Amino acid sequence: MSIKKTNFIWLNGDIIKWEDAKISVMTHALHYGTSVFEGIRCYKSYKGSVIFRHENHINRLYNSTKIYRFPLKFTIKEVINAVHIIININKLKEAYIRILIFIGVVGLGINPPKNYYADIIISAFLWENYLGNNAKNNGIRTMISTWNKIKPNTIPSLAKAGGNYLSSLLISSEARRNGYDEGIALDSLGFVSEGSGENIFIIKNKILFTPPLTSSVLPGITRDSVLKITKNINLKIKESLILREFLYLVDEIFLTGTAAEIIPVCSIDGILINNGKRRKITKKIQKEFLYLFTGKIQDKWNWLDHINL
Ligand code: PMP
Q1: Geometric angle at alpha carbon 163, from 255 and 221, rounded to 5°
Q2: Which ligand 1 atom is nearest residue 224's CA?
Q3: How far is the CA of 305 from the centre of ligand 1 (A)?
Q4: Torsion of CA 62, 128, 273, 216, to 10 degrees
Q5: Fold category of 135-294 in CATH
Q6: Are 304 and 47 in contact (CB under 8 A)?
Q7: Are 35 and 162 in contact (CB under 8 A)?
Q8: Which residues face 252 on adjacent strands?
Q9: Catalytic residue among 160, 204, 231, 287
Q10: Any idea where the domains of the chain sit in the sequence?
Q11: Stretch 74-91: mean pLDDT, rounded?
């Protein structure tokens, strides 16, 4: 799970060496969690390197800054262009791209002064699957976290903010301490929400269920891709509130995220999903997702942003 460092980082419009990309200990975001970010993947495809749903990710990033009212020096177009530059200059054919927008050195008052701009860092590097490479085939063991997800109108779940990941840390580290691979959290009402860094999908009797965004879930780009891709498969889709105990009774469960991709769940709270039988539909959806990059299914949504290396 370690990341492979590259040569250059984009910082507020400048390209600097990875080693020189340093920030002050008085950075506001370090003290108060005032950052928003994106994780994006660049894949090797039949047409060369492509950034998956690039514009959708940058739009979500700008939505996060809008919620927190971060003033920005750069337009969406400029950031999209900068991502291309950082992939090219680091000579990457595939990559995980991390964009971080944060409140920098503006003093230590919680409310930043007028006339500041948020800082932007763009990095790209190789990063293997977040839940381990075996997870995609063999699945992972999960538990329902004792920690609930953030409640509506406390910390916004539609924003992908650094501070949200304190909740994710509690959920994920509790699971690891107890010998599981990942934790799944319930929302503040007790309905199923999501994993520490992934959305959740459930299959029961050929219906694909996923919790609605009102269950405090991040509007995942992979989640949205799965919802669109499964229209090619004979499955009904239902976004609905999900009871915890329903998870114990279903045919298949999988998690989705940019870093983790599509990961089958083999057990939850020690209960095997479908008695540990094969996860046929999850495999099909995993394959359909990869077909986008092999050209076996057409990119009718215009999701692939080509890199000219
Ligand atoms: N939920 C959370 C809490 C996440 O951190 C992520 C990863 N960004 C996701 C869901 C999945 O989102 P995406 O598919 O856009 O990566």
Answers
A1: 35
A2: 14
A3: 20
A4: -20
A5: D-amino Acid Aminotransferase; Chain A, domain 2 (3.20.10)
A6: yes
A7: yes
A8: 203
A9: 160
A10: 8-125, 135-294
A11: 98
Q: Which atom of ligand 1 approaches the CA of 168 most closely?
A: 3
> Which H helix or E strand runs over 201?
strand 199-204
- Residue 218 Cβ contacting ligand 1 at under 6 Å: yes
Q: Which of the listed CATH numbers 2.40.30.20, 3.30.470.10, 3.30.70.2740, 1.20.1250.20 matches domain 8-125?
A: 3.30.470.10
The span from the CA of 201 to the CA of 190, in Å, is 17
pTM of the entire predicted model:
0.96
Q: How many CA atoms lie within 13 A of 52 on its CB side?
A: 26
Q: 182: how many CB neighbours lie within 10 A of its CB? A: 25
The pLDDT tens digits for 256-286 are: 999 889 999 999 999 999 888 878 999 999 9
184 Cα to the center of ligand 1, angstroms: 13
What share of the chain in percent tops pLDDT 70?
99
Does any ligand 1 atom lie closer than 6 A to the CB of residue 226?
no
The residue nearest atom 4 of ligand 1, judged by CA position, is 197
Task: Judge whether 160 counts as a catalytic residue.
Answer: yes
